[in-house]
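In response to a reviewer's request, we include the raw inputs and outputs for one of the modeled complexes. The two entities were modeled together in a single run.
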Amino acid sequence: MESYLLISLLANLVLMVFLLVFMYSVYLHDKQFDRDRRALHLDASKSIEDAHKRSKEIIESAVERAKDTLLKTEYIREDIIKDLENNLKEVSEATIGMVRNEALGFNKEYRTMLESIQVEHAKMLEEARTALKDIEYLKKDLHVGLQSQIQAVLDAAQKNLTEETSSFDEEYVTLLESTKKEYLTRAQETLQTLEKIPEQELAEFRTILRTETLSAQKLLGNRIDELFTTAEKEIDREIEGITGTVVEEVLGKKLTKADQETLVMRSLEKAKVEGMFPSKTANMDHSGNSEQPALKEEQTDVSVDTSKKPELKSEK
Amino acid sequence: MNLPITSYIYSVEDKAYMLEKLAVLEKGIFSLKKSFEEQVQEYFSLPVAEALLRSASRAQISSTNPELIQKFLKDQQASIKSLRVVVLRVAFIPSNDVLRNISKWFDVYLQEKVVIEFVVDSSLIGGAAIEWNGRYLDYSLKKLLQEKMSNKHKKEKEVPVSV
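The model returned the following structure tokens for the whole complex.
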């Protein structure tokens, strides 16, 4: 028993020791992990700081370089502009000079040309004047010559004409008279015949025209009447259809059952008046005594007139 | 009240219904299970049954004599069949009150029981077209409108046209 207890105590002790060792090892392991983590953290922060510094340096250097390049380009630009301005000035001066020289040369040439033209023009004017003088002399000579010649010819012609016309006139007069007579007789004859023919023909033509126009008018009138009546019928039919549908739509919906009933009763009364229900006891009431209206006074008014519509109760 | 069985007939439908019931009753009068009175009360409404039984007693028909009952029933059927029919074309579906009022009008005016046959035709707009004893008269608003229209056209045609 004692040995058993001892063994169990020993076993417990061994277990306890083993547990303590295990716990200690775990503790150590945790500590080591913390250290490693801190070291890692420190390294990372350092590397981040370094990277930050480097990036700052890079940016600063890049900015400085950019500034340098900007300054340089500014100088270059100014130089280029100056060069361009100088070149432009030179070119403009040279062109102005050229133009001036050419203009002067052209002016001289123009003047010489004008002078030569003026000289030639003066020469031509002198020649023209001399020519005109010659023509004037010629004209005077011709006028005198022609007048004398014409006078001579005229005298000769007059003599000839007076001789020939005296015989010709007589012949001509006789001829004219004979032809005149002929024409007159023919005209009279034709007039007479013409007067006779048109009167008959005109009368016939008038009658034919009258009958033709009358028949045409009649036909046209009939045709128009036919068209008019057919059109009128169609319009009537359409109007009836439209009014029918409108009235049907409006009245059919507006009339209440009571209105319908009164209308039916009126229809019956009307049928009674028109003798649709011939009855031997027509003038008797249901007790068979006296002559009394079958319905009330207001219902005996059988005229179903839409203009005098009864007070219809609307179903609202 | 000594009203005959026909006084409870207003429409063509009522007439057919009543004839059918009477035919059924006629077949059942030889049954030993139920008496004639019991069968009448079973097949008809109270006022109609009372009217039928009253007219049977007035005709001195013994409820124990089926032959007499059969004859009585045949007479009743014949009287119902003889009822004349008035056809009313109307534009609305009439209620029972309307039917009774119209029937009453015929009773009062004609002194004759008339069976009404309604034909609903909404195109009539209002009023009625009546068919009676081989005659047909249209007093509907539709007809009235048509007449008015045609009269108007005639009047327009009669007016001399000034050229």
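As requested, we also summarize the result in words. The longest helix of chain A spans residues 2-254. The interface with chain B takes residues 236, 239-240, 243-244, 247-248, 251-252, 255, 257, 259-261, 263-268, 270-272, 274, 276-277, 279, 281-282, 284-286, 288, 294-295, 304, 306 of chain A (CB under 8 Å).
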